[in-house]
């Protein structure tokens, strides 16, 4: 669905009276198929966000081409909201603080569909539900939510037109570990349901490892290595990837998901932790972290605190 060929980008940087040129991306080649989850990993300043902005059409490359849905993109280009959406690290700055959530979510529908108000409201309500927010959120403003809830709103807005590709630029970096886990789970569930292609950008290998099926490692604007996530994580070929992996902290928590029926006691739960085969912690031990009695009406996510 997306092919990036020999893409390069240079910025001019002014320091005092001197202008220098900084090559941020060099000969980037990537081929992303529909439904894949790509993780783009690299340290700060390696060019990840620049690449994301170019793919999203917010900036033009110097050279190279992008083929999207079999069409070569020319720059500057109009936004393609039905095809590409982007989610940023800080939802507070990407959500209009003066608009209620109902207007924030209505905007893409109003601008890009001919749906009448009633149908748009129906879609908005269903997306609030999909991201596990209450209907009363409609009348609230972004500042009335927590960071995690705001990122859920940003996700609902990104998904509302059901785009083919969502670029997620460090979407969980600003969140607490437990909230990170909930958002990652949600991303996984939504991807499974809607078969959306993800380009997930992060400097955090643990996060990439959890979500991505394919990985590209970027360093100083060069893609050093790319391929299946499992293969890259188990036998990295490039010395830089080896170094990244050896320096990476182990998963801070194992991301797990427990399903509870309303008012059930812990003993009657059904554990579907995605790490159940790999987790070094025995199931019984792992469950010690969960409150003895939970009264929930729906799915509850938690992070196992064992390291
Ligand atoms: N508009 C710009 N003008 C000049 N230089 C820029 C501009 N945008 C980014 N840069 C520089 O390009 C380099 C790559 O930046 P970029 O934001 O793409 O990296 P990144 O890997 O996303 O980093 P981070 O993880 O810290 O966000 C950095 O040295 C940055 O200072």
Automatic annotation (TrEMBL):
Keywords recorded for this protein, A-Z: ATP-binding, Nucleotide-binding, Transport
GO biological process, alphabetically ordered: peptide transport; transmembrane transport
Pfam families, per the entry? ABC_tran, oligo_HPY
Q: Has keyword Repressor?
A: no
Q: Where would I find the ABC transporter domain in this sequence? A: 2-245
Gene3D superfamilies hit by this protein: P-loop containing nucleotide triphosphate hydrolases
Q: Which SMART domains match?
A: AAA
One MF term in the entry's GO annotations: ATP binding
Name-wise, this protein is Peptide/nickel transport system ATP-binding protein
